[in-house]
Write a structure and sequence with these properties.
This protein is of the alpha+beta class. It has 14 helices and 17 strands. The chain has a five-stranded antiparallel β-sheet with strand order 2-1-5-4-3, with helices on both faces. A five-stranded antiparallel β-sheet has the order 7-6-10-9-8, with helices on both faces.
């Protein structure tokens, strides 16, 4: 391309002088605009370069030199310096981007690549955008003019996110527990193999329905209520046991865990759900409940009849020639009593541990409840030749409790105290209260409980002496039932340190007394 130059006449007319002044103003404005643009590019850390493709040399901006950590005084050839620091794996990528542009397949050169830092300790990510501004007669590009930017932070964030997504995807797909992403509307966005096996639907089938449509009708309201708590921010996650209905109508149980994923500004995005198949566990629970029901209805009644008949026979044949019969009757009666007690403890344990026992808190006369419990414990006290005494802070005490549960706990504690107390000793029941607590202490004079066993005594079926010839019989549920009964009322049952012999159990019931 030829450049045409025009010279002005020495004797310029005034109008020519005005035009000259206008040209000077325009050139000054243009220079300011260029300077402003350069300042903006420098502030944005955008480097500018021009590459002469014929001589393979470059002209670069100050920002380019800053990005590359080179200086004019270094005497480096900029193009050579740039090329030798390109990551070996990215050289072909850059060449392909240039070839695509030159051949017309792309409108410009756009490429992201790695450059080694000048100290050689790190790899920096760069992005180059460039176009040619000069071409020869054959259509060959003679130069490239473009920009170069450091995008290291963005690329590292993208790589970290991609790695995280890949790890999550791998974890989700290979997890043995059903895992899924669910939209805010309840649509299944992604599911793993374990989830499709559990629900009985393929992933494609699940994508066309929502979780509400396969939730058992009796569990849907509870599930949706928990979802609302998640959306409102009341909870961060929730866990429930719920039923799902498979395509063939089969009902399966799952332990569902749900977490709500939010954006950086707190907006809900989707749910991450996990479902553990607990169908077999539920079936076993059902069978256990059926078994306990059979015990309650089929065994308790005949045992009661046997014991009742033996009681009557004991009255009819108190002495005389029937001494042998009387002795055998008493043995049978003791065995029947033990069997009845064991059955009652099993049923009580099933109720308090299985969550089927209802709690009815009301203002109750604690003195009366204690008196009835002591009266019921008299046969055991008489058998072991032990007495019992109640010590009250006031003649009448009213407190909020469940009378049935409190009576149940006291019965087990008094029975234990009688069994383990030496003959001719006293079991004391001490009742104290203040504005915060009601405290009931049951203390015996027996051998006590070693410190190293005090954490174990509340475990189901635990026995300090496990031999068949142990002196005190029982199935080891009394203290477990007692603690669970007290906890159902919001209280606590604990064992207290004792001075001297004996064991002391403390029932604590919170809240202010009702007057």
């Amino acid at each position: 391309m030829k450049k045409h130059m025009h010279s002005a006449s020495p004797a310029s007319c005034p109008s020519d002088q005005i035009k000259g002044r206008d040209a000077s103003v325009n050139m000054g404005t243009h220079a300011i605009a260029i300077e402003t643009m350069e300042t903006a590019l420098a502030a944005a850390r955008i480097a500018v370069f021009e590459l002469d493709l014929v001589t393979d040399t470059s002209n670069v901006s100050e920002t380019w030199r800053e990005l590359m950590d080179v200086d004019l005084s270094d005497g480096l050839d900029f193009q050579t310096e740039w090329r030798k620091r390109i990551h070996p794996d990215d050289e072909a990528l850059i060449e392909r981007a240039l070839a695509d542009y030159v051949s017309g397949r792309t409108p410009r050169v756009v490429v992201e690549y790695r450059l080694r830092s000048r100290d050689g300790l790190d790899w920096l990510w760069m992005r180059t955008d460039a176009e040619a501004t000069e071409w020869d007669a054959q259509g060959n590009a003679l130069n490239l003019v473009g920009t170069q930017r450091d995008i290291t932070d963005r690329k590292r964030a993208e790589i970290a996110l991609q790695t995280s997504e890949e790890q999550f995807s791998s974890l989700m797909n290979n997890a043995p527990i059903g895992t899924a992403l669910v939209s805010l509307e309840g649509k299944w966005l992604a599911t793993n193999a374990a989830m499709t096996v559990f629900l009985g639907y393929s992933e494609e089938e699940l994508r066309s329905i929502d979780f509400q449509s396969i939730t058992h009708d009796d569990d849907l309201e509870s599930c949706l209520l928990n979802v609302q708590k998640l959306l409102s921010g009341e909870v961060d996650a929730f866990e429930i046991d719920k039923r799902y209905v498979r395509p063939d109508g089969e009902v399966v149980w799952g332990h569902l865990c749900v977490v709500l994923v939010r954006s950086e500004d707190g907006q809900p995005l989707h749910y991450i759900t996990q479902v553990l198949d607990i169908t077999e566990t539920r079936k076993l629970d059902f069978l256990r409940n059926e078994f306990m029901s059979i015990i309650a209805h089929e065994l308790r009644t005949p045992v009661t009849a046997v014991v009742g008949a033996l009681d009557m026979l004991d009255v009819v044949c108190p002495n005389g020639p029937f001494e042998k019969v009387q002795q055998l009757v008493k043995i049978a009666k003791r065995g029947g009593d033990r069997l009845r007690t064991a059955l009652e403890e099993l049923l009580d344990f099933e109720q308090v541990s299985g969550g089927t026992l209802s709690v009815n808190l009301s203002e109750s006369n604690i003195t009366e409840i204690l008196g009835e419990a002591l009266l019921k414990s008299q046969p055991a006290m008489h058998q072991h030749k032990v007495s019992a005494r109640m010590i009250l802070q006031e003649s009448e005490i009213f407190w909020k409790c469940d009378p049935v549960l409190l009576d149940k706990a006291l019965g087990h504690l008094l029975s234990n105290a009688a069994k383990f107390s030496p003959e001719d000793t006293e079991v004391r029941v001490v009742v104290e209260m203040d504005t915060r607590q009601l405290r009931i202490r049951v203390k015996d004079s027996g051998p006590g409980i070693p410190d190293n066993l005090q954490d174990k005594i509340f475990q189901p079926f635990w026995q300090q002496d496990t031999s068949d010839t142990r002196e005190q019989q029982g199935i080891g549920l009394g203290l477990t039932i007692s603690r669970q009964a007290i906890r159902k009322m919001g209280g606590e049952l604990s064992i207290e340190p004792c001075d001297g012999a004996g064991a002391e159990f403390l029932i604590t019931l919170p809240a202010c007394p009702l007057r």
